[in-house]
Amino acid sequence: MPEGNVIHNQARRLRNLFRSSAVTVDSPQGRFTADAKKINGRTLDKVEAHGKHLFLRFGDLWVHVHLGLFGKWRIAKGEAPQPFGQIRMRLRSDEGYAELRGPTVCELLDDDAKKAAVSRIGPDPIKKSDPTPAWNRVERSSASIGALLMDQRVFAGVGNIYRAEVLFRHNISPFRPGKQLSRGEFDAMWEDLVVLMTQGTKRGRIDTVRAEHLPEIMGRRPREDRHGGEVYVYRRAGQECHLCGDEVQMAEMGARKLYWCNTCQPE
DNA sequence: GCGTGATGTTGAA
DNA sequence: TCAACCTCACGCC
What we know:
The structure is a single chain. The chain is an alpha+beta fold. Helices cover 31% and strands 19% of the residues. The protein is built from 8 helices and 10 strands. The strands form 3 sheets. A 4-stranded antiparallel beta sheet has the order 1-6-7-5. Strand 3 (53-58) and strand 4 (61-66) form a beta hairpin. The chain binds a DNA duplex through helix 1 and helix 6.
């Protein structure tokens, strides 16, 4: 259940494990068998992450993977165990193996189709992309900034946690229309996403609480949320805001749960 | 052991 | 707008 930081982390692990080695590709589950045969035995020569999308190059063909909500990679050194459950795609080399389960997307693309897929993805803070295209969309959009942050054509790799947290950190209401953001607010949020998401890629968890607020929060916090990091509002509906004590709010926005503090992020 | 919900997107209706 | 994807950790019994 990854945001962009996890995908970039997985890309690095796949790169390190399979770099320039011949890979046995199959699909124990069967749904990727025909495509697996086309690349079986080839060398994995490139791994790219763009937002939450992963692209693996085997010569003139790319495997495009999107994990969606349930998708999982198991990446490990050593010999692959007997397959169990639903393994859509399995990669094996002398070094190790990778099992892909439950992805929303696992497809084979030629170079043109891969380029087209990448072109649909907006600038990615983890890649330190130029944010101008995102600003151009935000600046003239009447959609809320809460919705825009989740739109992968605008901000690639941002998910529900980073959305809630970056808005909180900048005291911006998720309901404010994009066109009512100043360039300064947008730039500050973008720079913050670059820092937070890069850090999240290295740590493998999402921490968004500023250092000066940590001691107080650690003393007050009932228990760590299971996503594993320290956050201000994500999944804290009904609890006290760490900074002002007001009740953290929750609402559905585009079929996803949105968290914010009315006092710290006034409309 | 069972039910629920979740860091997300696609494609049909 | 909604079902599908079909995993996994958690709360509750």
